[in-house]
Every structure is written in structure tokens, then in C-alpha cells.
């Protein structure tokens, strides 16, 4: 699929079927599990160090972190947007750019909210930053 | 339910602690934290050919929590004036903190007054940063 230039203007983010409005940034970080450790198997009498890749493989899980930043409304809770999410309740998060044909779609079924940051400046837009995390990776698809 | 961006200025946001309205604020940051993710536990046995992990069946350790940071300007005479109220409270105080945005309202009960940092005054005004926290509650929006 050819790269199609896009801006965040058309993107959407929903969690537990609740859309976040006023989006300014969605940051999806997908981390593979760590590499297998190098085990030191050097013994007395060896002339050089010898390392062996851990035969059991790598320790640790894949991890996903999604940070959603939006401009908040004073009525966002009443509107059922942005602030209405519960902590530590894994739900499906979906990043989409639905107005673009064949746009990439990101789906993660076990994302839980772990942090909500609300910044209220005196003379600038208030910002709501939601952080979702999971010990597993989501899936990218390209629905027609 | 149209989205409406707002500023603290235009919405008339107020912050009160123990019923005292705190004036001179320039920025309020509300940080609510859920529990950390469950720790993956290593259940690899001798003889296994791969590592095996399971999420801690007890869930994430510790509890939800919240920290509210208020930044602004103090008058050097605020205590004498009796209008600002910050210096009525000493760090260590525990009381209810309420941020009213004119729409959604955030309340953190038993908010501990943790730090108050003030700088040197210029022209009778000094900057301050105050932090409040609760280690067992994230507060609530209504």
C-alpha cells in the first residue's frame, strides 16, 4: 500500500466506544519484548570470554503505550467525552482515519487507562492527556 | 454535545482548599493515576524450553492516586490581606480540594498539602507552586 500523506485532522480515537474529541495528538508506542540475554559461559582456563544467547529466549512481554492528547471542554464529562474513562478496566481502543479510503486502522482489545492528566492554564486551551497501557501488542489492519 | 475548548480564564475556573478560594493561580495540573499494570510473573520451570510469564493474578500493586499542582503568583501581603489563604495552611494539612471549571468539577477529598514553594518577590508579587496529593484516591469528576 502506497504511503498516503495524512494529517491528524481526519484521525479518530475511541476507547470503550467513547470518542475523544478535540484531538491534537495520538502517540502509539509498540515495544517488542527484550532481546534474549547473553549468558557468560566463560570458565576457568578459557583464553577468551564466551557468551551464549539465553537458550530459553527473551524474558519479558511486548508492551503498548498509547498517549492521547486533546483539548478539553469544561463539559467533557457531562458530554461523555475525554474524562469519562475508568482506570484499570481493559477495553478496546481504536485509532482510525476513517475519512481516508483504505486507511490504516489500529485496534487493541485490552488497553487500560493508567493515567489522566488535566492541565488548565489561565489563558490558553486546557489539555487532557490520557495514557493507556497493556502488556501486549495491538493489531494494524487496512479495512476497505 | 459539541466540543468546546476552554481556558481557565474564560471559564472562570476556581480552585478551593478547605473551602478557601485560592487566588492568583496561573495553571492547575490534575494528574490522576490508575494502578500500574500487573507485574508479569516468571513461572518458568526447570526443563522448560522457553520462558513463561503470567500477569500477577492479584492485579496491579498499590492503588490509584492523584496529584494536583497549582502554579501562580502570591502577594507579599496576602496573609495580612486575608484574601489569598495559602498561608493559612501549612504543608501536612489534609482537606478537600475542589477545582471548578465552570462545567466539570474535580474533587480530591483528603488532599494532603505537600509542598509550597515560593520565590523572591518582584514588585510585591512572588511566584508560587503548591502541590496536593492523595496516595489512595484519584479523586472524582462530577
CATH fold topology of chain A? Pnp Oxidase, Chain A
Give the overall shape of chain A, derived from the CA principal axes: elongated
Judged by helices, strands and strand pairing, the structural class of chain A is mainly beta
The biggest beta sheet of chain B, please? Answer: 8 strands, antiparallel
* End-to-end C-alpha gap of chain A: 12 Å
CATH class of chain A: Mainly Beta
Q: Which architecture name of chain A does CATH use? A: Roll
- Along the chain, the helix and strand elements of chain B come as HEEEEEEHEEEE
> What is the approximate shape of chain B?
elongated
Short description:
The complex is a heterodimer of chains A (144) and B (142). Chain A is an all-beta fold and 144 residues long.
Structural notes for this entry:
The complex is a heterodimer of chains A (144) and B (142). By secondary structure, chain A is mostly beta strands. Chain A has a single domain (8-33, 61-141), classed as Pnp Oxidase, Chain A, CATH 2.30.110. Chain A has one helix spanning 76-79; strands spanning 12-15, 18-19, 23-31, 38-40, 51-53, 63-71, 91-96, 105-121, 127-134, 139-141. In chain A, the strands form two sheets. In chain A, strands 1, 2, 3, 6, 7, 8, 9 and 10 form an eight-stranded antiparallel beta sheet that branches. In chain A, strand 1 (12-15) and strand 2 (18-19) form a beta hairpin. Chain B has one domain (14-35, 62-141): Elongation Factor Tu (Ef-tu), domain 3. Chain B contains two helices and ten strands. Chain B has helices spanning 8-11, 78-81, and strands at residues 14-17, 20-21, 25-33, 40-42, 53-55, 65-75, 94-100, 105-118, 125-134, 140-141. Chain B is elongated, with a radius of gyration of 21 Å. The model of chain B has no long low-confidence stretch (mean pLDDT 87). The chains are: A mainly beta (144), B mainly beta (142). Chain A binds chain B through residues 21-22, 55-61, 71-81, 83, 87-88, 112-126, 133-135, and chain B through 1, 3-9, 11, 13, 25-38, 40, 42, 44, 48-51, 53, 55, 59-60, 64, 99, 101-104, 106, 138, 141-142. Strand 8 (105-121) of chain A pairs antiparallel with strand 3 of chain B.
Amino acid at each position: 500500500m502506497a504511503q498516503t500523506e495524512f494529517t491528524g485532522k481526519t484521525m479518530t480515537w475511541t476507547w470503550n466506544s467513547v470518542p475523544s474529541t478535540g484531538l491534537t495528538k495520538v502517540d502509539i508506542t509498540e515495544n517488542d519484548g527484550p532481546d534474549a540475554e547473553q549468558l557468560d559461559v566463560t570458565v576457568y582456563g578459557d583464553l577468551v570470554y564466551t557468551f551464549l544467547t539465553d537458550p530459553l529466549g527473551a524474558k519479558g512481554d511486548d508492551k503498548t503505550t498509547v498517549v492521547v492528547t486533546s483539548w478539553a471542554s469544561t463539559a467533557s464529562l457531562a458530554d461523555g467525552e475525554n474524562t469519562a474513562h475508568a482506570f484499570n478496566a481493559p477495553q478496546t481502543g481504536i485509532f482510525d482515519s476513517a475519512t481516508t479510503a483504505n486507511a490504516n486502522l489500529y485496534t487493541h482489545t485490552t488497553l487500560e487507562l493508567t493515567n489522566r492528566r488535566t492541565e488548565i492554564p489561565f489563558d490558553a486551551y486546557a489539555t487532557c492527556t490520557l495514557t493507556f497501557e497493556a502488556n501486549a501488542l495491538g493489531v494494524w489492519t487496512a479495512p476497505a | 454535545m459539541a466540543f468546546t475548548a476552554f481556558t481557565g480564564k474564560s471559564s472562570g475556573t476556581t480552585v478551593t482548599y478547605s473551602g478557601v478560594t485560592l487566588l492568583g493561580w496561573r495553571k492547575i495540573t490534575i494528574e490522576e493515576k490508575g494502578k500500574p499494570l500487573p507485574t508479569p510473573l516468571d513461572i518458568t520451570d526447570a526443563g522448560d524450553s522457553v520462558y513463561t510469564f503470567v500477569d500477577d493474578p492479584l492485579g496491579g500493586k498499590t492503588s490509584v492516586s492523584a496529584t494536583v499542582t497549582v502554579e501562580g503568583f502570591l502577594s507579599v501581603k496576602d496573609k495580612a490581606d486575608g484574601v489569598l489563604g495559602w498561608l493559612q495552611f501549612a504543608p501536612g494539612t489534609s482537606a478537600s480540594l475542589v477545582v471548578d471549571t465552570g462545567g466539570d468539577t474535580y474533587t480530591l477529598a483528603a488532599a494532603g498539602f505537600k509542598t509550597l514553594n515560593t520565590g523572591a518577590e518582584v514588585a510585591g508579587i512572588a511566584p508560587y507552586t503548591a502541590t496536593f496529593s492523595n496516595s489512595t484516591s484519584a479523586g472524582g469528576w462530577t
